[in-house]
Description:
The complex is a heterodimer. By secondary structure, chain A is mainly alpha-helical. Helices cover 74% and strands 3% of the residues of chain A. Chain A is built from eleven helices and two strands. The radius of gyration of chain A is 19 Å and the shape is globular.
Amino acid sequence: MDLYLAAFGFGLVSLSVIAIGAVGFTMQFGITNMINLAYGEVMISSAYVAYYVNRAGISIWIAMIAGAVFGAAFSFLLNRIVYAPFLAKGTSHIGMVIVSLAVSLMMANLLLPIVGYYSVSYQNSTGDLIRVGSIILTTNQIAIIAVAVALMLLIHGLLRYTRLGKAMRATSANPTLARNCGIPTQRVVDMVWVITGALCGLAGVVAAMDSDTFAIANGATFLITILAAAVLGGAGQPYGAMIGAVLIGLITELSAAAWSPQYKEVVAFGILVLVMVLRPQGLLAKRGALAAAG
Amino acid sequence: MKTFQSRNRFGRAALSALAIMTVTACGGGSSSTGGGLGSGDLLVGVIAPFTGADAGLGPAYYAACLAAAPAINNNGGVGGRNIGCQQFDTRGEPADAVPAANAMIASHSNLMAVVGCTSDEAATVAPIIDRSHIPMFCMTGQSEFNKTALKYFHRLVPADVYDAFAMVGSALYGPNHAPYKKAALVFGDDIGSQAFVQPATNALTKLGGTIAINQPIHLGASSYRTEVAAMLKTNPDVILTEALGSAGTYLKEVKTQNGGKMIPFIGSSATIDPVWFQQVRDAIGINDLLKYYAGVDLGYTFSGPAYTEFLANLNAAASQFSEAPKYKQRGSTLHLYDGIIMTALAMVATNSADPKVYNSKIIDIANGTTGATTVNTYKDGVAALHAGKSIRFVGAGGENNFDQYNNSQSGYILVAYDKDGNEVTAGTLTPDQTAKLIAAGG
Lengths: 294, 442
């Protein structure tokens, strides 16, 4: 039982990391209609930006902001320079998936000679160990959970209570109608790429902190988990992605405690497949934050 | 609000994407019997993981080739033909390795040898390369190659079972510590790493030890918190491990959850590697790495004329691959360097660029025949062959002793690192201890 409680605590950290990335990913799709498979490579690139800032002697908590800024700027440019022209030509959904996969592969291979294949670590103390019963977490891990909770609340506030959030929801529901109603949809889409890019950058840095060591190959690993959480929760649904992150994060850790750890991802993805069979639209497809503004 | 259709489209596309990513997310005498050495450049294919979880392996082999090329080219080439090196990335996955091997063979008619082929991909690519009659030097310890029928396959390192026995030997008989009787086996879930588990279990348990936990860990996972908690609950004396790419993450978690204190860990010979050293040093700190790590390796001297020339060429290779000099004590780099030079010497000895002719001569040059002259460099080998002598090449990695299955065997030593990442000898296993380990391991 002790091990399961410990695994539950570890699951809180995992789900926090996944949630930050999954919410950004699913918002990108929900509003721009784009499945961006380069998301994982933007995450790892942002992690490296933070690494170089951190190596210059700056705290990782400040370097994290540099990672977020890089993620925002890169994602904005990626859409403007690569994705938007393809979309303007009427490229199909699956065509855009392949374009983003190509971008992902190009980024990974361009990054390799720059950052090398060596694993790197942030210069950062893991913090003090806090024990609450059988749950053991470091202060850094608690800080990561706090960052995730704060970001989720901010996203909730953005979508529900701001003009930009309402414009995002309107653009998501019907971009043509939104444009005809005077909403500057192009500017809204740009802002979506900036905001979700920042989330992507932050997710990359916290995932790298969580791993202790990271390398270029981690980009693909991050993306698979995030994609799973987004699909599980319901396409384009930020709250669904949060629930998906909770399920994936907890299931992977608890299944590692229950069975051989080599099967933890098998169990998590098995549940994903089961949900997709029983409820192809995902867990929260009907009641999402991106529902039309009321 | 998106329609159901678009959501289902997302689901289908996302699952398709997951599927795509999963597929893309293992001396003889100078007989001069050949038909001539031909013209044009020759190529050595380096087929190995250059991306993916085992991306640290390929560069060690590429460095070997880059060092061997000038050793040959600056001394007349192979009958005037220069050799070059090219990477073929397997991503450490059999599914990616097969097209890589096929592309390598189909696109390059001037392949003289192939090096690399780790345990991740050897089982799939070795038969393909063998069918094309290209001599290969594979860095795999898989037991299926112990008695292989592949004539063009060569292995310059012992099978993994011996590596596993040496790790158990380090635990039970290593210097400066009481015998570690209770071991946690923490090996990656890849084919190569799992090959250690059964022989290590057999050897340790039959020599009075116990396995606290056998924990196959998924390489490349973002964290191992629950795994480490489960492992620490069993209170092992020592961790026996090979989890390339994930060692830093795992060991840092051990230190964190164990209140900042490491427990001893013994690595396979693959942990004598600059990539591994840097990762673990950065994760747990140099002091803990020096204090708690022990490894095993083949008994290299890192000295002598062959090693001196190897080192000079490896340092020169930095102009093409800046990381090359870091592999100065990587066993596989030394061995593959030797393998390429032996192949070139075999071509000169047979005066043939036809692998069907020169392949068998490689063994003669490695093992030597009666009355053979020992040579340590390509230049001396060519001179001796031109003088009509038979030769035995003893290279940077030391003597080779191929058996009838093209496996070369040699003994292990117990090692550690110094603060700069250089290997230092910590001890040896006596013949009696070695015999006990092999008998127990089965």
